[in-house]
Write a structure and sequence with these properties.
The chain is an alpha/beta fold. Helix content is about 25%, strand content about 25%. The strands form 6 sheets. Strands 11-15-10-5-8-9-16 form a 7-stranded parallel beta sheet, with helices on both faces. Bound molecules: flavin-adenine dinucleotide (FAD). Flavin-adenine dinucleotide binds near residues 286, 342 and 381.
Length: about 400
């Protein structure tokens, strides 16, 4: 959507200034209201204008966008302390497939301080180009600075598709970017394909996971999507691949950082990170109460695994949300997933059914989890899990 002001009809009443939720997005110049580059075209000012001088039109924006001017598949390379998030490499591999279908290039978009070394990895995972904004201001993720820099990059280089990991940061700023450049964004995609009209088909679960919706962005560019970690498969890196490194000088200055990060305190998690783990042991409502989650943790510890949970357990307050596996929790794709006392609701399966091997322990032989399980144990988890832990300890200590 696009908002603009008809100068001749502005009476200089300043009513629009009060209606605007964004600081400095409208200013007065020679008694006339003017939109600045802070305007996100939300349209909040339109109705405030007594002289009908502010207009908003979706069609105008669509006409302004020359779809054919956009080319290339971009992937945001999220990094922390100079180490890229796994989802960035997963998306580079996916981006490569999309770009090959479109006959275009793949580019990684890298922001940080002293992170140039990551470009090698970006090329190894399939990128032809790497746009690098390397500056102390980008040392830590900051919503405003990162949003501004990426918006500038998109406006200058006009990519056709931009993919972000659906991480906390990706979710935080992808939507802002979409609004600023007036395009669409589909969150939490589980499948991305290119159709015969060169359109990105963005598929994601809808209505509580009961249907899969395929969404297209047909009038605006770039087409933007977020994908959760572990949904796409990471390929093998090829370190013989070379690419073009393009340094980007953004106009981000100190004043763009609206808060200061004084210290980063790591949340101490006893077990392995769920999304990155090779083995996950999860407990469901069948564990019976928070006091019994320790048997899940003990089995997880024995297997050097991460401990997860179903939403029923999280909603009951037995474990924190960061342990939740499923549609509204984390997506995991470990080599081994052990589901203890979990029925196998569709929303839970959405987060774990691509695991290589699934072991289900449930006292109900008809529980749907057995439909996706590689191995099933019908029995009381309070007996089976401690026994399994004991046997594994014996075997592993041999
Ligand atoms: C929009 C939406 C999003 C959702 N997102 C998620 C999500 O991200 N993740 C998620 O998990 N759920 C999610 N849900 C909830 C989901 O629908 C289920 O309600 C939930 O997964 C059930 O959790 P559960 O399997 O632990 O509990 P239940 O369905 O109650 O199953 C408990 C199982 O334990 C077994 N059991 C009981 N006692 C024992 C025992 N002693 N030994 C062995 N087995 C035993 C029972 O036979 C049963 O199969 C979502 C729902 C909606 C509507």
């Amino acid at each position: 959507m696009s908002v603009w002001i008809i100068k001749d009809e502005c009476i200089g009443c300043e009513a629009c200034l009060d209606s605007c939720p964004y600081p400095e997005a409208i200013k007065m110049e020679d008694g006339i209201a003017v939109l600045t580059d802070k305007c996100v075209h939300c349209g909040a000012c339109v109705d405030s204008c007594p002289s009908d001088a502010i207009k908003m039109d979706d069609k105008k924006a669509a006409e302004e966008v020359g779809l054919e001017d956009y080319a290339g598949v971009w992937v945001f390379i999220e990094q922390r302390d100079g180490k890229a998030a796994g989802v960035a490499y997963e998306l580079l591999c996916e981006g490569r497939k999309l770009a090959d279908k479109l006959g275009t290039h793949v580019a990684g978009v890298l922001l940080g301080d002293n992170v140039e070394h990551l470009a090698k990895e970006v090329f190894a995972y399939g990128a032809d180009k790497c746009y690098l904004a390397d500056h102390p201001l980008f040392k830590n993720y900051q919503t405003d600075a990162y949003t501004k820099a990426i918006v500038e990059m998109i406006q200058e280089y006009k990519p056709e598709i931009v993919l972000f990991g659906a991480t906390n940061n990706g979710r935080d700023f992808a939507a802002r970017i979409a609004v600023r450049i007036r395009t669409g964004l589909t969150a939490d995609c589980t499948e991305l394909t290119i159709d015969d009209d060169r359109m990105l088909n963005q598929t994601r679960p809808a209505f509580g996971g009961n249907v899969m919706a395929t969404i297209i962005t047909d009038k605006h560019r770039p087409q933007m999507a977020t994908v959760r970690p572990k949904v796409m498969k990471k390929g093998e890196p090829d370190y013989s691949r070379q690419g073009e490194l393009i340094r980007f000088e953004s106009s981000v200055v100190e004043e763009d950082l609206h808060y200061q990060i004084l210290d980063i305190v790591e949340h101490a998690i006893k077990t392995v990170n769920l999304a990155e783990a090779d083995i996950v042991v999860s407990g469901g409502r069948g564990i019976g109460g928070p006091e019994n989650y320790c048997i899940i943790e003990e089995l997880a510890e024995t297997l050097k695994a991460a401990a997860g949970a179903s939403r029923a357990v999280v909603d009951a307050g037995w474990v924190p949300h960061y342990r939740q596996v499923g549609q509204t929790g984390k997506t995991v794709a470990p080599k081994l997933y052990v589901a203890c006392g979990i029925s196998g609701a569709i929303q839970h399966l959405a987060g774990m059914q691509t695991s290589d091997k699934i072991v289900a322990i449930n006292k109900d032989p008809d529980a749907p989890i057995f439909n996706v399980a590689t191995y099933g144990i019908v029995g009381d988890l309070h007996k089976v899990v401690p026994l399994l832990t004991k046997k594994l300890k014996e075997e592993l200590n041999k």
